[in-house]
């Protein structure tokens, strides 16, 4: 009988922790995040070669904006569990050096309309869609 209560207590604890994480990311994502690392599959993309420091700023009104290394972008977002749902995204359309465009292309695939995995670990925001992974810091 004690084992049954132990198991149920553990399950309830896991449920509470899971719900807390969703609420935490909803609150904690509202900040300016600077891109540190970016990879496409097994290929690391050198973000230091971009013409501008890539960043994203999530606002409390569910909007976001930033720079992808060359062009500015904007859109709307929602958080559900550990999923970032992007809608209404747009951006300016300047041409830049190939290194900047490589960063921008990968970053925009993550932030295109649809669902992206989103996690906050310490001061890092990790966004991942398919094989593309971006790590940002506050």
UniProtKB/TrEMBL annotation:
Outline the extent of the DUF306 domain: 32-132
Q: Which InterPro entries match?
A: DUF306_Meta_HslJ, HslJ-like_sf, Hsp_HslJ-like
Q: What is this protein called?
A: DUF306 domain-containing protein
Q: What is the lineage of its organism?
A: Bacteria, Pseudomonadati, Campylobacterota, Epsilonproteobacteria, Campylobacterales
């Amino acid at each position: 009988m004690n084992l049954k209560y132990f198991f149920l207590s553990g399950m309830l604890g896991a449920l509470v922790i899971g719900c807390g994480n969703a609420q935490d990311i909803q609150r904690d994502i509202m900040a300016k995040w600077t891109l540190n690392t970016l990879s496409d599959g097994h290929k690391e993309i050198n973000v230091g070669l971009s013409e501008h420091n890539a960043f994203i700023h999530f606002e409390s009104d569910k909007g976001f904006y930033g720079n992808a290394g060359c062009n500015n972008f904007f859109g709307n977002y929602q958080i559900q569990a550990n999923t970032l749902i992007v809608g209404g995204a747009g951006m300016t359309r300047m041409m830049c050096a190939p290194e900047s465009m490589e960063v921008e292309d990968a970053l925009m695939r993550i932030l295109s309309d649809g669902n992206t995995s989103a996690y906050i670990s310490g001061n890092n925001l990790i966004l991942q869609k398919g094989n593309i992974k971006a790590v940002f810091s506050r």
